[in-house]
Write a structure and sequence with these properties.
The protein is mainly α and 465 residues long. The chain has 22 helices and 2 strands.
Length: 465
Amino acid sequence: MSTLTTTLAEPGPLAAPAAAARSADPRGASQLRRDLRAMLGDGVAFSLMVGIGESYLPAFALALGHGDVVSGLVATVPMLFGALLQLASPAAVGFLASHRRWIVFCASLQALCFVPLLVSALAGEMDLLLLYLTASLYWGLGMSTGPAWTTWASSLVPKRLRPAFFANRARASQAALVLGLAAGGIILQLGKGRGSEFQAYAIIFAIALFARIVSAGFLRSQREPRTLEVGETSISPAIIRRHVRTGGHGRLLFFLLTFQMGVMVASPYFTPFMLTELELSYFEFTVLTATAFASRVFTLPFLGRWVRRAGTKKVLSRAGLAISTFPILWLVTDQFAWLFLLQVVSGIGWAAFELASLLSFFERIPPRGQTSVLTLYNLANATAIVLGSALGGGLLHAFGPGPAGFVAIFVVSTVARAGLLGFLRRVPDVEHPGEPSPLRPLSARPGTGADQRPVLTDQGEFHRD
């Protein structure tokens, strides 16, 4: 029995409503099952693309000979373009009079971003400007669908099924991302061993292209209720101001953004550090990246009880302290067993920090304001990422080739992370944290395990066909 079928037919409180819906409207129930299968397929195909394609873009920049700084910045600078483009998403949805049209359009164009990467891999060279432009379009098209997709998905999935369905979809997506990571690492390792490294990159980019095309097909096959309001993705400045000024959320936002900036001084440069400085193989690089991601994913469901017992503020403080030590610990030894253990612990620390941040930041936002807040938060977060990575890139460039630059950014990142923890004294605690939203993986990162966004499924009530 598939995950989707299990979601629709599992015993307990969901079984009776689902059975009643099937008996009362068999055609509607059948269409709902098709929609949910397509939504699940889209999540799996999208995550496969991320794992086997986007995750290896910094490594591809290194293989092209563009250097450590470019390898780090190509994974972060394009995110700002993506965050800016998502601001145009409400207007685009309104112009097309459809969430689905806009999302399918962006997904299809995002798939085409792998064409220049594939061609360049076959040629063994790629202009730096074209590389940044391709990465920027990739991130822009991907992030611009986020708010519209959340609104559309919430309109298709009945409220009683949302928690189970989106949790199952998140698990399937995370498994697909790990599978993509593993497949990409194996293909690159075999290609490099046979003297065909760039041909191997062409293969993984071709698979990523195909996966996103499949994802776009699944998106196109889903319905869009005629009663879904086009303006649901609009950004409300009033809601943003109210959220920032209420209950110390402005201080929390300041902490999260400045801490992210400190993290990004080092995080984007773990890929060049592993591949050039430590001279790890593609297989070892993939194992370490997948370990951090898997540790984060597997730990997250078990941390809810600790957060509810200890409080979000205490968890943020303890997890933040642990996270602060990770960069400097990479300098202890280059033994693979140590690095593997460090990635396991890193995944756990980031899972705890992410959960506490999510509950602290989104717990008090009214459902109708979640899309607005998340959209503006994505922009602010992307700005912090670019500023932090630019500082790290500047340090690497100043110290020149060799280990000194990596030592500098790891030390600066450690000091910045630890120093910013003092702001937590002024951050409010959440007295009764609820259940966290499922997370949608956007990328896998060696330094933090992943870049994920919450799937905000409680978007209010929609009338369905």
